[in-house]
Amino acid sequence: MRLRRATAWFIDFALVVGAASLLALLTFHRVTLLVTDVPSLATKGGLDLVTSRGDVVGASEHLGLSLWDSVVLDVEEAFGALVLVTFLYQWACLRLLGRTLGKGLLGLRVTPRLSRHALRRAAVTTAADVAVYALACVLLIEGHYLASVLVWAVAVVLFLVNALPVVFPGHRSLADRLAGTSVRGVFQRAGSSPRGGVPQG
């Protein structure tokens, strides 16, 4: 059961990494278009220069900051989209199927399959896997370096607290504990566990 749970988690996390890679490519494309749109940049730069009353340095600085703000916004939107996609994947799979794709492939299910349990489990899993890391990255690109390091440390601890119990017998992940769920084999009866102990979660 432990090996199946760990493998299922790796499959689900690989899907998240795949989504992150696609969003990274899309964001890179958006930034490239922004930077290489010479006519638009020339028009904006010319307008800034005309309205600068001769302050060429100030106009150039304004153009540079405006371009940087657009790049930062694109990156932040990508992180936000990753968090949203991860949450919707977790929630929709748990609510509709009672398992994520990784768990389904390994013959596992999450019980009970109720809306409130699925919502809480999806929220905790998303926070532990990507949301807190995304917040740390956003703080970093916004220039809040100390806050970014602190949030990054919290993200690592949260990730480990949620993931490590999977490899120990009879332990439930943080997501399972907070959501009131457990992970079982498809043919395992509710309330039972492979070794007669606490249900695996």
What percentage of amino acids are in beta strands?
under 5%
Structural class: mainly alpha
Q: What characterizes the major β-sheet?
A: 2 strands, antiparallel
**What helical percentage do the residues reach?**
over 70%
Terminal Cα span: 10 Å
Mean pLDDT: 81
Number of helices: 7
Compute the number of strand runs.
Answer: 2
Query: What's the arrangement of strands in the largest beta sheet?
Result: 1-2
Overall, the morphology is elongated
- Which sequence of SSEs, written as H and E, runs from N to C? HHHHEHHHE
| Uncertain residue ranges | 190-201
Radius of gyration: 23 Å
Would you summarize the structure shown here?
Helix content is 73%, strand content 4%.
Task: Throw out a few tags for this protein.
201 residues; mainly alpha
Q: What's the arrangement of secondary structure elements?
A:
Elements (H helix, E strand, L loop, with lengths): L1 H35 L1 H13 L5 H42 L3 H5 L2 E4 L3 H27 L3 H19 L10 H6 L2 E4 L16
Antiparallel strand pairs: 1-2
Helix pairs in contact: 1-3, 2-3, 3-5, 5-6
Written account of the structure:
The protein is mainly alpha-helical and 201 residues long. The chain is built from seven helices and two strands, in the order ααααβαααβ. Helix 1 packs antiparallel against helix 3, helix 2 packs across helix 3 (56-97) and helix 5 runs antiparallel to helix 6. The protein has helices at 2-36, 38-50, 56-97, 101-105, 115-141, 145-163, 174-179, and strands spanning 108-111, 182-185. Mean pLDDT is 81; it is low at 190-201.
